[in-house]
Amino acid sequence: MPGSLPAACEATWPKDVGIIAMEVYVPSQYVDQAELEEFDGVGAGKYTIGLGQARMGFCSDREDIGSLCLTVVQRLMERNGLSYESVGRLEVGTETIIDKSKSTKTVLMQLFEESGNTDVEGVDTTNACYGGTAALFNAVNWVESSSWDGSARPTGGAGAVAMLVGPNAPLAFERGLRGTHMQHAYDFYKPDMVSEYPVVDGKLSIQCYLSALDRCYSVYKNKIHARWQREGTERRCSLEDFGFMVFHSPYCKLVQKSLARLLLNDFLCHPSPNTETGPFSGLEAFRDVKIEDTYFDRDVEKAFMKASSEMFDSKTKASLLISNQNGNMYTPSVYGCLASVLAQHTPQQLGGQRIGSALDNLVSSLCDLQDRLDSRTKVSPAVFAENMKLREETHHLANYIPQGSVDELLPGTWYLTRVDEKHRRHYARRCLNEHRHLEPGLHTSCTAAEHIPSPLKKMPRIPTTPAGPEVVAISNGDH
Asked: Which region among 313-317, 357-361, 472-476 has the lowest average model confidence (pLDDT)?
């Protein structure tokens, strides 16, 4: 079992393997969610309050998974002064594929050509939402293995988050303390290879999320409890042991409910919870509920959200900056939340575990995250819907030149220039000098001649009543 190896064996591993550097990329355009509510003809507050989302970033046909990953990896390397010669493994975690054989990792190898470094292990890890975490774990495991030769390891998630993994990291993983849950379910899947849209069973998807959360938390607590026992300490792990709680964020309100659910787990596992004072105050009526019967129990949800409200403000709310301002990034979502925490706290506030120059560098590299989000361009819901329609109609085409404006992209952003007759994708990078106009004649504005419903209307919601499952189609992480 992980975490149970003797200390003599642990002494041979690299120390404090974890995240040395991190970079986040979000698209340069967004649509205001309040305006989108009106455009979609839904009730006021459905997106802004029901989902807890203020803005949603999206890409035109100028960006795809290849360009997003090129942008975020090159920014990671440039902003941290890293050399491509020093990279020994590159992992890409994603849920999006544009080729059933050629990996996105091979597209990123363009960045290594000038250095001459082709000795770079790793490949894509594809799985809805979990792909980024699996890729990160692969990189960590590689550093801790005999395969590591001292090289650096960046891992890119869906072109939105890139991380450099190595030893002596300011943000270290606790070896052996992972809780994993995997099961077979058709809650979210993409069976149509020519469509960007998945098929989603909304109610089942929420149940899968919450049941996986329950199981992972239980496995983690069992492992850390076993470690404490070996160290001669008899104590019970709870939310009080964590400085921050960061979640995969399909939408902000689900994150708040998830923290409340972990408090429910702590409450049900406690042999004699104090229901007079403290976090469990007033919860005695729920002492005998069964965890598997509470996925859509509104009374349980309301009570534990109220009980955990202060904990949410102190441990989790800061992590939702990108989720609130950019929406669900899918595979890299949880790491966008991690970056949000780092961007809004000083090393001293994050300390207690480790404080030093390396942590200073990691935090300072993300301190402009809010400024980056504020510098984006707001577009109308009609323009957003037209962009989504264009992607639907053209994403699978060969011999195609994208119509989106290059001028809308941020300086230094990689973009798709064309797809040739053999479906080979060609990319270029916008000059870092933002005053330089690239590729005249390709500037195309999108205007909506008809009312096209936005893809957000297709996204699954938490059911308000225990109705039967509803299968809906939603657009993927590209918007």
From this structure: 472-476
Is position 205 annotated in a ligand binding site? yes
Residue 160 in this model has a pLDDT that exceeds 80: no
Sequence spans of domains, the chain:
13-173+331-435, 180-328
Specify whether 435 is catalytic: no
Same fold, 13-173+331-435 and 180-328: yes
Instruction: Provide the pLDDT for residue 283.
Output: 96
Flag whether 145 is marked binding: no
Q: Is 257 annotated as a binding residue?
A: yes
Q: Catalytic residue among 23, 37, 63, 129, which?
A: 129
Tokens of 146: 């005999």
Residue among 91, 95, 196, 408 flagged as catalytic: 95
Predicted TM-score (pTM) of this structure: 0.82
Residue tagged 């995250």 (tokens): 369
- Catalytic member of 59, 248, 337, 446: 248
Helices (H), 316-380: 321-326, 333-343, 347-350, 357-364, 369-374
Locate tokens 């966008």: which residue?
Answer: 336
Domain 180-328: which CATH number of 3.90.1720, 1.10.10, 2.60.290, 3.40.47: 3.40.47
248 included as an active-site residue:
yes
Q: What is the CATH number of domain 13-173+331-435?
A: 3.40.47.10
First-to-last C-alpha distance (Å) of the chain = 40
Is-catalytic flag, 240? no
